[in-house]
Write a structure and sequence with these properties.
Layout: H1 22-31, E1 37-42, H2 48-59, E2 63-65, E3 71-76, H3 88-93, E4 98-100, E5 107-109, H4 117-131, H5 136-145, E6 154-157, E7 163-167, H6 173-185, E8 192-197, H7 206-219, E9 224-228, H8 229-238, E10 244-248, H9 251-261, E11 267-271, H10 279-286
Parallel strand pairs: 7-11, 8-9, 8-11, 9-10
Antiparallel strand pairs: 1-3, 2-3, 4-5, 6-7
Length: 300
């Protein structure tokens, strides 16, 4: 059996450079966002979490320079030039959590549900629970373990990398906007495709509401909009800045259209009123035999 023998060789002499602590520098990098202008940080370790924080600051609209190996310059623009939503994969790669300071004590947790709007819901839940006397650690565990209803921003991935964001339970103007923002925030090596069915029972507000959804899709940088039904056609018609727009009569036609255009690495959002039945598209895209080939037509 081999062995390693270590023998003392006397006292050591020399200099050891101690780099800054990761947990300290990450907070300091984030704190730069509190003031506009150029900030200089020194003794910054060259580690993966620091690199991710640099990506995060850049995604938010800051400029980061690293002229020296262990120094950083972070330039923060005016607040109105910052982007409030950063790619979710950056937070996930840092194992990020949130801490909410309350009159009843800090609540540290992670949210088990998807969507920027759920952060607001979580804050309301924290406030009500605190007022009712629920202990912060109980609130934290409850938020971390919360799950959404079926077909509400369910994210599933195929073996070839295609992702389906299934939000077909129902749709109204507010939930449509939330779903599109969730799609825009997802990391995609391919395109972001929104398959949007009509929103029912909007009365005289229907045309304007559908047009507003299409305009939002354009502002969020969605790559493809597939309208389903008459209201879906109004959405795609208003999405004038979206590169690719298609109109389909119903869910079955939408499935055929989406299968013909998706590639591995795309992210597909499905959203529409319950009566549109877009779960048919979800089931069709996620079927075991639906894998993308080299071309778009080779997969759904």
């Amino acid at each position: 059996m081999s062995s390693l023998v270590v023998k003392p060789a006397g006292p050591l002499a020399g200099d050891v450079q101690a780099f800054g602590a990761k947990n300290a520098v990450l907070k300091q990098m984030a704190a730069c966002l509190l003031a506009t202008g150029r900030h200089h940080l020194t003794n910054v370790p060259d580690i993966s979490d620091v690199k991710v924080m640099v990506e995060l600051l850049v995604a938010l609209g800051c400029t980061v320079e690293r002229p020296l190996e262990h120094g950083l310059f972070v330039t923060v623009p005016e607040a109105h030039d910052l982007h409030p939503v950063a790619p979710a994969h950056l937070f996930e790669s840092m194992r990020a959590s949130i801490v909410v300071r309350t009159p009843w004590g800090p609540v540290a947790t992670k949210l088990g549900v998807r969507g920027q709007h759920q952060a607001t819901n979580a804050l309301f839940a924290i406030a009500v629970a605190g007022w009712l006397g629920v202990a912060p650690e109980v609130v934290s565990a409850g938020l971390a373990g919360a799950t959404g209803s079926r077909w509400r921003l369910e994210l599933e991935r195929r073996a070839d990398g295609l992702a389906v964001l299934n939000d077909v339970y129902n749709a109204n103007p507010t939930s449509m906007a939330a779903a599109l923002r969730a799609l825009a925030a997802l990391t995609a090596t391919g395109r972001r495709i929104a398959v949007l069915g009509e929103m029912r029972e909007l009365g005289e507000h229907s045309r304007d509401a559908h047009a507003a959804v299409g305009e939002l899709a354009g502002r969020l940088g969605i790559d493809v909009v597939v309208g389903v039904g008459a209201g879906g056609a109004e959405i795609s018609a208003a999405a004038t800045s979206v590169p690719t727009r298609l109109d389909t009569a119903d869910a079955a036609e939408a499935l055929v259209a989406v299968r013909s255009l998706v590639h591995a690495g795309d992210v597909v959002l499905l959203k529409g009123s319950r009566a549109v039945g877009l779960e048919l598209v979800a089931h069709g895209l996620l079927a075991p035999d639906q894998l993308c080939g080299e071309s778009a037509g080779g997969r759904p």
